[in-house]
């Protein structure tokens, strides 16, 4: 058997997969392009196993089976990510995916109250027991956190 034909076919498949990964914007098509690249590697492994006699019998076929198992796991995780992306954004375009986290929103600093750090409240008439959030005026919440931010 001439090994040139499978190697050229594998090179074409891998090139088509690289082109698909670099040019496609749809996440499902990117996953399909990755599968093309993995299949090209499988073709090279099986062809090398039949043409090159190595110490391990059928080593290339074993590696190809291992790549198939990894490809199945990659598709399962990849499709789960794509489905979650579609639920959040209603689109599977990969160039719309934010790659960084949003910075946390800064809360406005409240007035400093003397004695709060020590666990006592310096305001007269307030209840300073631990776990008590109401003062004498009957409002719930604390001085540094409004009620909606609990």
Identify the quaternary structure here.
single chain
Proportion in helices: 40-55%
Supply Rg: 31 Å
- Chain-averaged pLDDT: 77
Overall spatial form = elongated
**pLDDT < 50 runs, ≥5 residues:** none
Query: Please, how many helices?
Result: 3
The sequence of SSEs as H and E is: HHH
Helix-strand makeup class:
mainly alpha
**Distance between the ends:** 72 Å
Number of strands: 0
What percent strand? under 5%
Largest sheet: none
Could you describe the 3D structure shown?
With 150 residues, this protein is mainly alpha-helical. The protein is 51% helix and 0% strand. The chain is built from three helices and no strands. Helix 1 (4-23) runs antiparallel to helix 2 and helix 2 (27-51) packs antiparallel against helix 3. The chain is elongated. The termini are far apart.
């Amino acid at each position: 058997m001439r090994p040139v034909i499978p190697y050229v076919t594998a090179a074409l498949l891998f090139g088509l997969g690289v082109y698909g990964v670099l040019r496609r914007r749809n996440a499902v098509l990117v996953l399909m392009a990755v599968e093309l690249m993995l299949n090209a590697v499988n073709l090279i492994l099986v062809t090398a196993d039949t043409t090159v006699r190595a110490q391990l019998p059928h080593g290339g076929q074993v590696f190809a089976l291992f790549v198939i198992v990894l490809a199945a796991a990659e598709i399962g995780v990849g499709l789960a990510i794509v489905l979650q992306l579609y639920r959040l954004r209603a689109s599977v375009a990969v160039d719309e995916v934010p790659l960084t986290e949003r910075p946390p929103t800064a809360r406005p600093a409240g007035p400093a109250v003397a004695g709060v750090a020590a666990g006592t409240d310096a305001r007269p008439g307030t209840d300073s027991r631990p776990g008590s959030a109401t003062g004498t005026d009957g409002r719930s919440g604390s001085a540094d956190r409004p009620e909606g931010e609990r």
